Amino acid sequence: MQWALMTLLDPIYSVENLIYIGYAGDPSSAIRLTRRRRLDRKKQQSDRNVYQCFVFGPKEAGKSAILNSFIGRPFPEEYQSTTGDQYAVNVVDLGGAKKSLVLREIPEDEVKKLLSSKDALADCDIAIFVHDSSHEASWKRAADLLVDVASHGEATGYEMPCLIVAAKDDLEPYLTEIQDSTRVSQDLGIEAPIPISTKLGDFSNLFRRIVNAAEHPHLSIPETEAGRSRKQYHRLVNRSLMFVSGLKFMLSFRTYTLLPSCQTFPLEEHLRAIDFDPLRYYLDFNDLERSSR
To answer: Is 242 found in the same domain as 216?
Structure first.
């Protein structure tokens, strides 16, 4: 698992380590190059063996608890704020097919800095947005983060599947939590929220859902209002260009049909038509050919 994480974060350093420990084969053969994620979306499938999931959410939503559960750490009784990115890696079994999943926790106060880079989401296969289902403010902040990340993906071309995770399901949810989260997921065109409880439930279903969504990168991609408007604008421009091209062709064809038609004859037919007598006339062949045109 450490090898998968290290190779994902710094493949060059991994190759250098193989050389250092005396790897017998070609070090580059130990690393598998995969297709670009954008091409995976077009192909509507991904054959990667390692997926990286960005974990977003407000403070005290339960992000760290998900990472701890993933690697078998006990649930802490007291809240500890996360500073800097945290990683957790493990194997997820999907009916016999084993995939490595890397969870990367993004602290709430680091999101703005992360999204300031155009390539911030280039290495992200899937993102989850965790909120405390018992607090309305936590949900609203998670929804804002979801829109911010989705908008960044639409603007840069690094779109990815996104899932909403309703944490602390063992607590009483706020009054309209289910309606609010369901409405947002439907508006964005992604799956319904996944309820979990760190204290009570088994997280294996969540991790399988994450990997399954990553394997189908064309699904569960959120579409914001700005993204829909941008696509509609591009469709309108393309249709306008097609209309202009078609109109230009029609005008060109109409102009051609209005031109006087000129029949052309083979040289032999032309000579016969003008009653040419070679004994009486001598004409240069090129002049004759030009006159026949």
So the answer is: no
